[in-house]
Amino acid sequence: MPQIFPRSADMWLRLALLILFGGLVGLLIVVMVLDRSDYISRKGWVVRQPVPFSHEHHAGALKIDCRYCHDSVETSAVAGLPPTETCMSCHSQIWTGAEMLAPVRQSLAEDKPLRWNRVAELPDYVYFQHDVHVNAGVGCETCHGQVDTMPLMYRGEAFTMSWCLDCHQDPAPRLRPREAITAMGWSTELDRREVGQQLVKAHHIDTRHLTHCYTCHR
Ligand code: HEC
Ligand code: HEC
Ligand code: HEC
Ligand code: HEC
Ligand code: HEC
Fold first, then answer.
1. What is the largest CA-CA distance in the chain?
2. What pTM was estimated for this model as a whole?
3. Which of 58, 124, 129, 199 is the most exposed place for a label (fewest CB within 10 A)?
């Protein structure tokens, strides 16, 4: 057989294949890491808002209860964002001339709601209800993080499917008494699992169906 390619061609071909293969594996790793990263899930990323509203200030320092502004959280699927009137219940008296609050005054004058950019949001194909969770004893903090320390709001948890399922498989140790639903930094001296198991009984929580696909995808 006459030799068409020089002997070294074989080596170059192997090398090219090796580089191609290495590149593909590398790309796969990058995709896999990104898929789990906070960049994709937006966990911890501050969202810009029309007014730099601070939860650290209002919920933390001033200790205004979450339900003063998110008033449908115990009774409906959505927590609700406060109308401009809620802000004005205080800001018609304090910081009335502040430049920072100009969009709030404008919103009231023009009767146009402030357009807050969403921070915690699920894709449309996922079904979620606040009332069932809050009434079962899942605290805001468990899903949204230490909101009272956030000057600007960011996502405290990644809201991936596995995060939901982790709790749905075994909610007991993550439950708290209803009085502590909006408390931040809540803890108990008692055994958390025991406290939770009592709550599971008291609230008649049936955990058997919680991991079925149709619970969250209907
Ligand atoms: C219960 C009273 C109350 C309500 C309701 C309230 N605020 Fe405030 N807000 C305050 C006080 C008090 C301050 C702080 C003034 C200070 O300490 O200098 C403040 C400060 C601010 C500031 C200045 C930046 C900061 O946080 O220090 C902004 C902006 C602001 N509020 C926006 C809002 C918006 C928007 C709403 C409605 C969603 C709202 N506030 C509802 C009492 C309130
Ligand atoms: C004085 C009113 C006020 C109080 C009190 C308050 N919030 Fe808010 N909250 C807002 C406003 C206004 C927004 C929209 C702007 C933003 O994202 O910061 C918001 C946004 C949020 C969001 C993000 C919603 C989204 O998807 O965009 C969460 C989560 C939240 N609040 C949780 C809480 C919790 C938990 C508490 C109690 C610890 C609380 N809030 C107390 C006014 C308030
Ligand atoms: C079991 C987890 C969980 C708990 C507990 C929880 N949230 Fe949420 N919250 C979510 C999820 C998930 C979303 C996004 C929902 C969507 O996009 O359909 C959300 C969205 C929000 C929003 C914006 C959209 C809306 O529903 O109006 C606010 C405000 C909010 N939560 C406040 C609260 C407050 C206040 C509490 C406590 C009283 C609380 N949440 C308890 C998971 C939770
Ligand atoms: C920390 C615990 C916890 C987390 C996190 C959590 N859940 Fe739940 N969820 C519960 C508990 C407990 C119940 C049962 C409430 C009951 O039966 O009274 C429940 C019930 C539900 C229900 C109602 C089921 C029915 O009875 O119809 C839906 C829907 C749901 N969860 C969706 C979600 C989604 C989507 C997520 C993630 C974004 C999530 N949950 C995260 C604890 C949790
Ligand atoms: C406790 C709630 C919950 C249950 C139960 C659940 N899912 Fe999901 N699922 C979610 C959430 C939340 C997302 C969105 C994840 C995201 O945005 O990263 C999701 C996303 C998905 C997606 C989109 C692709 C992806 O992974 O992002 C598919 C497909 C899916 N779920 C299938 C299923 C199947 C099949 C089951 C039953 C075995 C199931 N889910 C049970 C909450 C749930």
1. 97
2. 0.90
3. 124
Amino acid at the residue 28: L
Tokens, residue 66? 């979450």
Predicted confidence band at 43 (pLDDT cuts at 50, 70, 90)? confident
Are residue 77 and residue 175 in the same domain, yes or no?
Answer: yes
The tokens describing 111, both together, are 């009767």
Written as one letter, the residue type at 18 is L
Q: Which two tokens stand for residue 179?
A: 């009085």
The one-letter amino acid code at 77 reads A
Contact predicate 211/169, CB 8 Å: yes
Look over the chain and give the mean of its residue pLDDT values, rounded to a whole number: 91
pLDDT of residue 27: 83
- For a mutational test of ligand 3's pocket, the pick from 41, 47, 70, 170, i.e. the residue with the most ligand atoms closer than 8 A to its C-beta, is 70
Name the residue range of residue 19's domain. 7-36
